[in-house]
Protein backbone atom coordinates (compact mmCIF):
# COMPACT_ATOMS: atom_id res chain seq x y z
CA UNK A 1 0.00 0.00 0.00
CA UNK A 2 2.71 2.48 0.86
CA UNK A 3 4.03 2.49 -2.73
CA UNK A 4 0.87 4.30 -3.66
CA UNK A 5 2.05 7.10 -1.39
CA UNK A 6 5.43 7.61 -3.01
CA UNK A 7 4.62 11.01 -4.44
CA UNK A 8 7.09 13.88 -4.45
CA UNK A 9 7.68 15.94 -1.34
CA UNK A 10 5.95 19.29 -1.32
CA UNK A 11 8.82 21.81 -1.21
CA UNK A 12 8.64 24.37 1.55
CA UNK A 13 9.79 27.97 1.62
CA UNK A 14 13.60 27.78 1.97
CA UNK A 15 13.59 30.35 4.78
CA UNK A 16 11.45 28.20 7.08
CA UNK A 17 12.80 24.72 6.40
CA UNK A 18 13.53 24.36 10.12
CA UNK A 19 9.91 24.67 11.26
CA UNK A 20 9.02 21.06 10.48
CA UNK A 21 12.43 19.48 10.02
CA UNK A 22 13.58 16.05 11.11
CA UNK A 23 17.05 16.82 12.48
CA UNK A 24 19.53 14.00 13.13
CA UNK A 25 22.05 14.64 15.89
CA UNK A 26 25.55 13.36 15.19
CA UNK A 27 27.95 13.01 18.08
CA UNK A 28 30.97 13.16 15.77
CA UNK A 29 33.52 11.31 17.89
CA UNK A 30 31.18 8.31 18.03
CA UNK A 31 29.62 8.25 14.57
CA UNK A 32 32.12 6.85 12.04
CA UNK A 33 35.91 6.63 12.23
CA UNK A 34 37.56 6.93 8.80
CA UNK A 35 41.20 6.95 9.91
CA UNK A 36 41.10 4.08 12.38
CA UNK A 37 42.27 5.98 15.47
CA UNK A 38 39.20 4.98 17.50
CA UNK A 39 37.58 8.43 17.32
CA UNK A 40 34.86 9.26 14.84
CA UNK A 41 35.78 12.03 12.41
CA UNK A 42 34.55 14.33 9.66
CA UNK A 43 35.61 12.06 6.75
CA UNK A 44 33.64 9.34 8.58
CA UNK A 45 30.52 11.50 8.33
CA UNK A 46 31.18 12.02 4.60
CA UNK A 47 31.44 8.26 4.16
CA UNK A 48 27.94 7.93 5.67
CA UNK A 49 26.31 10.75 3.69
CA UNK A 50 24.37 8.25 1.58
CA UNK A 51 23.12 6.51 4.72
CA UNK A 52 21.78 9.85 6.00
CA UNK A 53 20.14 10.57 2.66
CA UNK A 54 18.50 7.13 2.60
CA UNK A 55 17.34 7.64 6.15
CA UNK A 56 15.58 10.75 4.88
CA UNK A 57 16.49 13.39 7.46
CA UNK A 58 16.23 17.08 6.58
CA UNK A 59 19.26 18.23 8.56
CA UNK A 60 22.08 17.04 10.75
CA UNK A 61 23.20 18.75 13.94
CA UNK A 62 26.84 18.08 14.82
CA UNK A 63 27.83 18.14 18.47
CA UNK A 64 31.22 19.91 18.86
CA UNK A 65 34.01 18.79 16.51
CA UNK A 66 36.34 21.66 17.44
CA UNK A 67 39.84 21.31 18.93
CA UNK A 68 39.30 20.17 22.50
CA UNK A 69 41.10 18.43 25.34
CA UNK A 70 37.90 16.36 25.69
CA UNK A 71 37.33 17.20 29.34
CA UNK A 72 33.59 17.26 28.49
CA UNK A 73 33.20 15.33 25.24
CA UNK A 74 34.14 18.37 23.13
CA UNK A 75 31.91 20.87 24.97
CA UNK A 76 35.22 22.29 26.21
CA UNK A 77 36.18 24.19 23.07
CA UNK A 78 39.80 25.30 22.63
CA UNK A 79 39.32 27.01 19.26
CA UNK A 80 35.84 27.93 17.99
CA UNK A 81 36.88 28.35 14.38
CA UNK A 82 38.71 25.15 13.61
CA UNK A 83 38.35 21.37 13.43
CA UNK A 84 40.00 19.05 15.98
CA UNK A 85 42.99 17.69 13.99
CA UNK A 86 42.01 14.18 15.16
CA UNK A 87 38.67 14.71 13.39
CA UNK A 88 40.00 16.29 10.20
CA UNK A 89 40.61 19.71 8.70
CA UNK A 90 38.54 22.70 7.64
CA UNK A 91 38.78 21.36 4.08
CA UNK A 92 37.25 18.08 5.27
CA UNK A 93 34.50 20.12 6.91
CA UNK A 94 33.82 21.94 3.62
CA UNK A 95 33.70 18.59 1.81
CA UNK A 96 31.22 17.32 4.38
CA UNK A 97 28.95 20.36 3.97
CA UNK A 98 29.08 19.93 0.19
CA UNK A 99 28.31 16.19 0.41
CA UNK A 100 25.32 16.80 2.68
CA UNK A 101 24.01 19.78 0.73
CA UNK A 102 24.21 17.79 -2.50
CA UNK A 103 21.85 15.32 -0.86
CA UNK A 104 19.47 18.04 0.31
CA UNK A 105 20.58 17.80 3.96
CA UNK A 106 21.15 21.01 5.97
CA UNK A 107 23.96 21.37 8.50
CA UNK A 108 23.62 22.70 12.05
CA UNK A 109 26.67 23.14 14.28
CA UNK A 110 26.89 23.46 18.05
CA UNK A 111 27.97 26.79 19.58
CA UNK A 112 29.22 26.67 23.18
CA UNK A 113 29.20 30.27 24.41
CA UNK A 114 28.93 29.98 28.20
CA UNK A 115 32.45 28.68 28.65
CA UNK A 116 35.58 27.77 26.72
CA UNK A 117 38.17 25.09 27.37
CA UNK A 118 40.96 26.00 29.79
CA UNK A 119 43.21 25.29 26.78
CA UNK A 120 41.69 28.23 24.84
CA UNK A 121 44.33 30.84 23.99
CA UNK A 122 42.40 33.51 25.93
CA UNK A 123 42.34 31.44 29.10
CA UNK A 124 46.03 30.56 28.79
CA UNK A 125 46.75 34.28 28.35
CA UNK A 126 44.62 35.05 31.40
CA UNK A 127 46.60 32.59 33.52
CA UNK A 128 49.91 34.05 32.41
CA UNK A 129 48.94 37.70 32.59
CA UNK A 130 48.03 37.46 36.28
CA UNK A 131 45.59 39.24 38.56
CA UNK A 132 44.23 42.60 37.55
CA UNK A 133 45.21 42.07 33.88
CA UNK A 134 42.98 42.84 30.93
CA UNK A 135 43.25 39.18 29.87
CA UNK A 136 41.53 38.03 33.09
CA UNK A 137 38.56 40.29 32.34
CA UNK A 138 37.36 37.96 29.59
CA UNK A 139 36.63 35.30 32.21
CA UNK A 140 35.30 35.51 35.77
CA UNK A 141 38.18 35.80 38.23
CA UNK A 142 37.72 36.76 41.88
CA UNK A 143 39.75 36.84 45.08
CA UNK A 144 38.96 34.03 47.47
CA UNK A 145 37.30 34.26 50.86
CA UNK A 146 39.04 33.47 54.17
CA UNK A 147 41.98 35.30 55.77
CA UNK A 148 44.31 34.51 52.90
CA UNK A 149 41.83 34.01 50.09
CA UNK A 150 42.21 30.26 50.56
CA UNK A 151 38.45 29.63 50.33
CA UNK A 152 36.36 29.86 47.15
CA UNK A 153 34.61 33.23 46.74
CA UNK A 154 31.22 31.52 47.27
CA UNK A 155 29.90 28.07 48.10
CA UNK A 156 28.34 27.59 44.66
CA UNK A 157 28.36 24.11 43.13
CA UNK A 158 29.26 23.15 39.55
CA UNK A 159 26.73 21.25 37.41
CA UNK A 160 29.00 18.19 37.23
CA UNK A 161 29.56 18.14 41.01
CA UNK A 162 32.16 19.79 43.26
CA UNK A 163 32.68 23.53 43.74
CA UNK A 164 32.09 26.03 40.92
CA UNK A 165 35.38 27.87 41.62
CA UNK A 166 38.95 26.73 40.96
CA UNK A 167 42.08 28.37 42.33
CA UNK A 168 44.97 29.26 40.04
CA UNK A 169 48.69 29.45 40.89
CA UNK A 170 48.71 33.11 41.96
CA UNK A 171 45.81 32.53 44.35
CA UNK A 172 42.85 33.97 42.42
CA UNK A 173 39.80 31.83 41.66
CA UNK A 174 37.82 31.47 38.43
CA UNK A 175 34.19 30.45 37.94
CA UNK A 176 33.30 27.26 36.07
CA UNK A 177 29.63 26.31 35.99
CA UNK A 178 30.52 22.90 34.55
CA UNK A 179 33.89 21.02 34.67
CA UNK A 180 37.02 22.66 36.08
CA UNK A 181 38.40 22.70 32.54
CA UNK A 182 35.44 24.86 31.35
CA UNK A 183 35.97 28.43 32.62
CA UNK A 184 32.88 30.66 32.20
CA UNK A 185 33.23 33.66 29.90
CA UNK A 186 32.45 37.18 31.09
CA UNK A 187 29.61 38.20 28.78
CA UNK A 188 29.89 41.84 29.90
CA UNK A 189 33.13 41.97 27.93
CA UNK A 190 32.80 43.48 24.42
CA UNK A 191 35.57 41.27 23.01
CA UNK A 192 33.73 38.12 24.10
CA UNK A 193 30.56 39.35 22.38
CA UNK A 194 32.42 40.37 19.25
CA UNK A 195 34.32 37.10 19.03
CA UNK A 196 31.14 35.02 18.99
CA UNK A 197 29.73 37.20 16.18
CA UNK A 198 32.92 36.41 14.26
CA UNK A 199 32.44 32.69 14.96
CA UNK A 200 28.81 32.77 13.76
CA UNK A 201 29.89 34.49 10.53
CA UNK A 202 32.84 32.13 10.10
CA UNK A 203 30.62 29.03 10.01
CA UNK A 204 27.78 30.75 8.15
CA UNK A 205 30.27 31.76 5.46
CA UNK A 206 31.30 28.11 5.17
CA UNK A 207 27.71 27.20 4.34
CA UNK A 208 26.41 26.14 7.74
CA UNK A 209 22.62 26.51 7.84
CA UNK A 210 21.99 26.83 11.56
CA UNK A 211 23.26 26.65 15.12
CA UNK A 212 22.38 24.77 18.30
CA UNK A 213 23.18 26.98 21.28
CA UNK A 214 24.58 25.19 24.32
CA UNK A 215 23.14 26.23 27.72
CA UNK A 216 21.74 29.36 26.09
CA UNK A 217 20.21 30.59 29.36
CA UNK A 218 23.43 30.93 31.31
CA UNK A 219 25.61 33.47 29.45
CA UNK A 220 24.89 36.76 31.18
CA UNK A 221 25.41 37.03 34.94
CA UNK A 222 25.06 39.66 37.63
CA UNK A 223 28.19 39.24 39.72
CA UNK A 224 28.02 42.46 41.69
CA UNK A 225 29.28 42.19 45.28
CA UNK A 226 28.32 40.89 47.72
CA UNK A 227 27.80 37.60 45.89
CA UNK A 228 24.87 35.58 47.22
CA UNK A 229 25.34 32.19 48.89
CA UNK A 230 24.13 28.98 47.28
CA UNK A 231 21.10 28.90 49.57
CA UNK A 232 20.28 32.51 48.72
CA UNK A 233 20.60 31.74 45.00
CA UNK A 234 18.20 28.83 45.33
CA UNK A 235 15.63 31.07 46.98
CA UNK A 236 15.73 33.72 44.26
CA UNK A 237 12.92 33.94 41.70
CA UNK A 238 13.58 32.71 38.17
CA UNK A 239 11.87 35.73 36.65
CA UNK A 240 14.64 37.23 34.57
CA UNK A 241 16.44 38.80 37.53
CA UNK A 242 18.26 35.73 38.87
CA UNK A 243 22.02 36.46 39.03
CA UNK A 244 23.10 33.34 37.14
CA UNK A 245 20.33 31.92 35.01
CA UNK A 246 17.78 32.95 32.38
CA UNK A 247 18.38 36.66 32.86
CA UNK A 248 16.36 39.05 30.73
CA UNK A 249 19.57 40.68 29.51
CA UNK A 250 20.71 37.47 27.76
CA UNK A 251 18.24 38.35 25.01
CA UNK A 252 20.31 41.42 24.12
CA UNK A 253 23.01 38.95 23.08
CA UNK A 254 20.61 36.95 20.91
CA UNK A 255 19.15 40.08 19.33
CA UNK A 256 22.67 40.85 18.09
CA UNK A 257 23.06 37.28 16.87
CA UNK A 258 19.76 37.51 15.01
CA UNK A 259 21.15 40.45 13.03
CA UNK A 260 24.05 38.24 11.96
CA UNK A 261 21.73 35.34 11.04
CA UNK A 262 19.68 37.72 8.91
CA UNK A 263 22.73 38.86 6.96
CA UNK A 264 22.42 35.55 5.13
CA UNK A 265 19.96 34.29 2.57
CA UNK A 266 18.22 32.21 3.69
CA UNK A 267 18.70 33.50 7.23
CA UNK A 268 20.68 31.17 9.46
CA UNK A 269 18.59 29.40 12.08
CA UNK A 270 19.21 28.64 15.74
CA UNK A 271 17.77 26.46 18.46
CA UNK A 272 18.35 27.16 22.15
CA UNK A 273 19.18 24.59 24.76
CA UNK A 274 17.53 26.55 27.58
CA UNK A 275 16.64 24.87 30.85
CA UNK A 276 14.27 27.50 32.22
CA UNK A 277 11.45 27.64 34.72
CA UNK A 278 8.36 27.84 32.48
CA UNK A 279 7.15 27.49 28.89
CA UNK A 280 6.65 31.27 28.85
CA UNK A 281 10.30 31.87 29.73
CA UNK A 282 11.35 29.35 27.07
CA UNK A 283 9.29 31.14 24.43
CA UNK A 284 11.57 34.18 24.74
CA UNK A 285 14.47 32.18 23.32
CA UNK A 286 12.27 31.04 20.45
CA UNK A 287 11.25 34.56 19.43
CA UNK A 288 11.87 35.67 15.85
CA UNK A 289 13.97 38.56 17.23
CA UNK A 290 16.16 36.05 19.04
CA UNK A 291 17.26 32.50 18.34
CA UNK A 292 13.97 31.50 16.69
CA UNK A 293 13.48 28.07 18.25
CA UNK A 294 14.04 26.42 21.65
CA UNK A 295 14.23 22.80 22.72
CA UNK A 296 11.25 21.35 24.53
CA UNK A 297 12.66 18.58 26.74
CA UNK A 298 9.39 17.65 28.45
CA UNK A 299 9.26 14.17 26.94
CA UNK A 300 12.71 13.33 28.30
CA UNK A 301 11.20 13.12 31.75
CA UNK A 302 7.75 11.80 30.89
CA UNK A 303 6.56 8.22 31.24
CA UNK A 304 5.21 6.24 28.29
CA UNK A 305 1.73 7.37 29.22
CA UNK A 306 -1.13 8.73 27.09
CA UNK A 307 -2.23 11.40 29.55
CA UNK A 308 1.26 12.80 29.97
CA UNK A 309 1.95 12.78 26.23
CA UNK A 310 -1.33 14.49 25.43
CA UNK A 311 -0.86 17.32 27.90
CA UNK A 312 2.79 17.88 26.91
CA UNK A 313 1.83 17.99 23.22
CA UNK A 314 -1.10 20.35 23.77
CA UNK A 315 0.85 22.71 26.00
CA UNK A 316 3.87 22.91 23.69
CA UNK A 317 1.81 23.49 20.58
CA UNK A 318 -0.03 26.32 22.33
CA UNK A 319 3.19 27.81 23.51
CA UNK A 320 4.86 27.69 20.11
CA UNK A 321 1.78 29.18 18.46
CA UNK A 322 1.97 32.11 20.87
CA UNK A 323 5.69 32.72 20.27
CA UNK A 324 5.33 32.35 16.49
CA UNK A 325 7.96 29.62 16.50
CA UNK A 326 7.47 25.91 15.93
CA UNK A 327 7.94 23.39 18.66
CA UNK A 328 10.64 20.73 18.95
CA UNK A 329 10.34 17.10 19.98
CA UNK A 330 13.15 15.14 21.58
CA UNK A 331 13.20 11.64 23.07
CA UNK A 332 16.95 11.07 23.18
CA UNK A 333 20.18 13.05 22.98
CA UNK A 334 23.81 12.79 24.08
CA UNK A 335 22.96 13.76 27.68
CA UNK A 336 20.25 11.25 28.63
CA UNK A 337 19.60 7.49 28.85
CA UNK A 338 18.39 6.25 25.45
CA UNK A 339 14.59 6.12 25.25
CA UNK A 340 14.40 2.46 24.18
CA UNK A 341 16.03 1.69 27.54
CA UNK A 342 14.05 4.20 29.60
CA UNK A 343 10.82 2.64 28.37
CA UNK A 344 12.02 -0.88 29.16
CA UNK A 345 12.95 -0.34 32.80
CA UNK A 346 10.73 -1.61 35.59
CA UNK A 347 8.65 1.06 37.30
CA UNK A 348 10.90 1.41 40.32
CA UNK A 349 10.28 4.83 41.71
CA UNK A 350 7.66 6.28 39.48
CA UNK A 351 9.50 8.46 37.02
CA UNK A 352 11.61 7.15 34.14
CA UNK A 353 14.43 9.42 35.24
CA UNK A 354 14.58 7.75 38.63
CA UNK A 355 14.31 4.30 37.08
CA UNK A 356 17.31 5.20 34.92
CA UNK A 357 19.32 6.38 37.90
CA UNK A 358 18.54 3.30 39.95
CA UNK A 359 19.31 0.99 37.06
CA UNK A 360 22.56 2.57 36.03
CA UNK A 361 23.71 2.90 39.63
CA UNK A 362 23.21 -0.81 40.01
CA UNK A 363 25.73 -1.26 37.19
CA UNK A 364 22.94 -1.67 34.70
CA UNK A 365 22.21 -5.40 35.07
CA UNK A 366 20.90 -6.44 31.68
CA UNK A 367 17.94 -8.37 33.08
CA UNK A 368 16.48 -5.18 34.56
CA UNK A 369 15.61 -3.98 31.10
CA UNK A 370 12.89 -5.54 29.04
CA UNK A 371 14.66 -4.70 25.80
CA UNK A 372 11.89 -5.88 23.55
CA UNK A 373 9.19 -3.92 25.33
CA UNK A 374 11.39 -0.83 25.62
CA UNK A 375 12.02 -0.88 21.90
CA UNK A 376 8.37 -1.54 21.05
CA UNK A 377 7.34 1.50 23.09
CA UNK A 378 10.20 3.57 21.68
CA UNK A 379 9.07 2.81 18.14
CA UNK A 380 5.51 3.78 19.05
CA UNK A 381 6.63 7.04 20.69
CA UNK A 382 8.87 7.96 17.77
CA UNK A 383 6.13 7.38 15.21
CA UNK A 384 3.81 9.53 17.27
CA UNK A 385 6.42 12.32 17.42
CA UNK A 386 7.21 12.19 13.71
CA UNK A 387 3.51 12.70 13.04
CA UNK A 388 3.31 15.87 15.13
CA UNK A 389 3.63 19.43 13.87
CA UNK A 390 7.03 20.96 14.62
CA UNK A 391 10.55 19.67 14.27
CA UNK A 392 11.83 16.42 15.66
CA UNK A 393 15.39 15.90 16.82
CA UNK A 394 16.62 12.33 16.48
CA UNK A 395 19.80 11.11 18.15
CA UNK A 396 22.26 8.89 16.26
CA UNK A 397 21.63 5.21 16.87
CA UNK A 398 17.98 5.57 17.86
CA UNK A 399 17.04 4.69 14.27
CA UNK A 400 18.70 1.32 14.98
CA UNK A 401 16.74 0.93 18.21
CA UNK A 402 19.97 1.04 20.22
CA UNK A 403 19.80 0.64 23.97
CA UNK A 404 21.90 2.39 26.59
CA UNK A 405 25.22 0.70 27.35
CA UNK A 406 25.39 0.66 31.14
CA UNK A 407 28.25 -1.76 31.67
CA UNK A 408 31.26 0.43 30.95
CA UNK A 409 34.21 -0.15 33.29
CA UNK A 410 35.06 2.93 35.38
CA UNK A 411 38.55 3.18 33.89
CA UNK A 412 37.09 3.46 30.39
CA UNK A 413 34.49 6.10 31.18
CA UNK A 414 34.98 9.66 29.96
CA UNK A 415 32.12 11.77 31.26
CA UNK A 416 33.25 14.38 33.82
CA UNK A 417 29.91 14.08 35.61
CA UNK A 418 30.84 10.45 36.45
CA UNK A 419 34.18 11.47 37.96
CA UNK A 420 32.85 14.53 39.78
CA UNK A 421 29.83 12.75 41.26
CA UNK A 422 26.92 14.62 39.65
CA UNK A 423 23.69 12.73 39.32
CA UNK A 424 23.36 12.54 35.53
CA UNK A 425 21.64 9.17 35.67
CA UNK A 426 24.15 8.05 38.26
CA UNK A 427 26.90 6.78 36.01
CA UNK A 428 27.12 9.65 33.63
CA UNK A 429 26.39 9.99 29.95
CA UNK A 430 28.87 7.64 28.26
CA UNK A 431 26.28 4.88 27.77
CA UNK A 432 24.47 6.75 24.99
CA UNK A 433 27.74 7.86 23.37
CA UNK A 434 29.11 4.42 22.52
CA UNK A 435 30.13 4.31 18.82
CA UNK A 436 27.54 3.18 16.27
CA UNK A 437 27.53 -0.44 15.02
CA UNK A 438 27.52 -0.24 11.23
CA UNK A 439 28.18 -3.91 10.54
CA UNK A 440 27.40 -7.06 12.53
CA UNK A 441 31.01 -8.21 12.39
CA UNK A 442 34.48 -6.78 11.97
CA UNK A 443 36.52 -4.52 14.23
CA UNK A 444 34.39 -2.09 16.22
CA UNK A 445 31.32 -3.26 14.27
CA UNK A 446 32.35 -1.23 11.24
CA UNK A 447 32.74 2.00 13.21
CA UNK A 448 36.47 2.02 12.37
CA UNK A 449 39.30 -0.36 11.73
CA UNK A 450 40.41 -0.78 15.33
CA UNK A 451 38.97 -0.47 18.83
CA UNK A 452 36.40 2.25 19.44
CA UNK A 453 37.13 4.95 22.04
CA UNK A 454 34.29 3.62 24.24
CA UNK A 455 33.79 -0.16 24.47
CA UNK A 456 30.91 -1.63 22.43
CA UNK A 457 29.02 -4.62 23.89
CA UNK A 458 28.61 -7.90 21.94
CA UNK A 459 24.83 -7.32 21.66
CA UNK A 460 25.48 -4.33 19.39
CA UNK A 461 25.78 -6.90 16.54
CA UNK A 462 22.00 -7.43 16.57
CA UNK A 463 21.41 -3.73 16.01
CA UNK A 464 24.01 -3.20 13.25
CA UNK A 465 22.93 -0.95 10.39
CA UNK A 466 23.73 -3.58 7.73
CA UNK A 467 21.53 -6.18 9.43
CA UNK A 468 18.67 -3.74 9.85
CA UNK A 469 18.91 -2.35 6.31
CA UNK A 470 18.21 -5.86 5.02
CA UNK A 471 15.21 -6.42 7.28
CA UNK A 472 11.91 -4.73 6.33
CA UNK A 473 10.65 -5.05 9.91
CA UNK A 474 13.69 -3.48 11.53
CA UNK A 475 13.68 -0.18 13.38
CA UNK A 476 15.87 1.31 10.64
CA UNK A 477 13.33 0.35 7.97
CA UNK A 478 10.57 1.86 10.08
CA UNK A 479 12.44 5.17 10.46
CA UNK A 480 13.19 5.30 6.73
CA UNK A 481 9.58 4.73 5.82
CA UNK A 482 8.32 7.19 8.44
CA UNK A 483 10.70 9.90 7.29
CA UNK A 484 9.65 9.37 3.68
CA UNK A 485 5.93 9.52 4.46
CA UNK A 486 6.43 12.39 6.88
CA UNK A 487 7.05 14.69 3.93
CA UNK A 488 3.49 14.06 2.84
CA UNK A 489 2.00 14.29 6.28
CA UNK A 490 3.74 17.51 7.37
CA UNK A 491 1.50 20.08 5.76
CA UNK A 492 0.13 22.76 8.04
CA UNK A 493 1.20 23.09 11.65
CA UNK A 494 -2.01 22.08 13.40
CA UNK A 495 -3.51 18.96 14.83
CA UNK A 496 -6.93 18.05 16.04
CA UNK A 497 -7.45 15.41 18.73
CA UNK A 498 -10.11 12.80 18.03
CA UNK A 499 -11.77 10.91 20.83
CA UNK A 500 -11.03 7.19 20.98
CA UNK A 501 -13.18 6.12 23.91
CA UNK A 502 -10.07 4.88 25.67
CA UNK A 503 -7.79 6.79 28.08
CA UNK A 504 -4.74 4.93 26.91
CA UNK A 505 -5.23 5.52 23.17
CA UNK A 506 -4.44 8.88 21.55
CA UNK A 507 -5.55 9.84 18.06
CA UNK A 508 -5.10 13.07 16.15
CA UNK A 509 -5.68 14.35 12.64
CA UNK A 510 -3.51 16.70 10.57
CA UNK A 511 -5.11 19.33 8.32
CA UNK A 512 -4.52 17.27 5.15
CA UNK A 513 -6.36 14.25 6.50
CA UNK A 514 -3.45 12.18 7.79
CA UNK A 515 -4.12 10.63 11.17
CA UNK A 516 -1.92 9.16 13.87
CA UNK A 517 -3.18 6.67 16.47
CA UNK A 518 -1.07 5.49 19.42
CA UNK A 519 -2.06 2.70 21.75
CA UNK A 520 -0.19 3.27 25.02
CA UNK A 521 -1.95 0.35 26.67
CA UNK A 522 -1.60 -3.38 26.15
CA UNK A 523 -5.10 -4.32 24.96
CA UNK A 524 -5.56 -4.14 21.15
CA UNK A 525 -7.53 -1.16 19.83
CA UNK A 526 -10.05 -1.83 17.07
CA UNK A 527 -9.32 0.40 14.08
CA UNK A 528 -12.61 -0.20 12.28
CA UNK A 529 -12.58 1.01 8.68
CA UNK A 530 -9.23 2.77 9.25
CA UNK A 531 -7.55 -0.62 9.24
CA UNK A 532 -7.70 -0.50 5.43
CA UNK A 533 -5.93 2.85 5.27
CA UNK A 534 -2.92 2.12 7.45
CA UNK A 535 0.15 3.52 5.73
CA UNK A 536 2.64 2.69 8.46
CA UNK A 537 2.73 0.64 11.64
CA UNK A 538 1.35 -2.72 12.75
CA UNK A 539 -2.25 -3.90 12.35
CA UNK A 540 -3.41 -7.31 13.41
CA UNK A 541 -6.95 -8.55 12.68
CA UNK A 542 -8.11 -4.99 12.10
CA UNK A 543 -6.73 -3.82 15.44
CA UNK A 544 -3.79 -1.75 16.61
CA UNK A 545 -1.74 -3.96 18.94
CA UNK A 546 -0.69 -2.68 22.38
CA UNK A 547 2.22 -0.22 22.65
CA UNK A 548 2.24 0.74 19.01
CA UNK A 549 1.39 3.56 16.60
CA UNK A 550 -0.13 3.63 13.13
CA UNK A 551 -0.33 6.35 10.54
CA UNK A 552 -3.57 6.41 8.61
CA UNK A 553 -3.47 7.95 5.16
CA UNK A 554 -6.21 10.20 3.79
CA UNK A 555 -8.57 8.10 1.70
CA UNK A 556 -7.65 9.95 -1.50
CA UNK A 557 -4.07 8.73 -1.28
CA UNK A 558 -4.88 5.07 -0.94
CA UNK A 559 -5.31 3.02 -4.03
C1 LIG B 1 25.01 21.06 27.51
C2 LIG B 1 25.47 19.88 26.69
C3 LIG B 1 26.24 18.96 27.56
C4 LIG B 1 27.44 19.69 28.12
C5 LIG B 1 27.01 20.97 28.85
C6 LIG B 1 28.19 21.88 29.12
O1 LIG B 1 24.08 20.71 28.46
O2 LIG B 1 24.38 19.28 26.06
O3 LIG B 1 26.66 17.81 26.88
O4 LIG B 1 28.13 18.87 29.00
O5 LIG B 1 26.11 21.71 28.08
O6 LIG B 1 28.70 22.41 27.93
UniProtKB/TrEMBL annotation:
Gene3D superfamilies: Glycosidases, Oligo-1,6-glucosidase, Domain 2
Residue ranges of every copy of the Glycosyl hydrolase family 13 catalytic domain listed in the record: 25-433
InterPro entries associated with the record: GH (IPR017853), GH13_cat_dom (IPR006047), O16G_dom_2 (IPR045857)
Protein species of origin: Labedella endophytica
Stated name of the protein: Alpha-amylase
GO BP of this protein: oligosaccharide catabolic process
A Pfam family per the record: Alpha-amylase
Family matches, as CDD domains: AmyAc_OligoGlu_TS (cd11332)
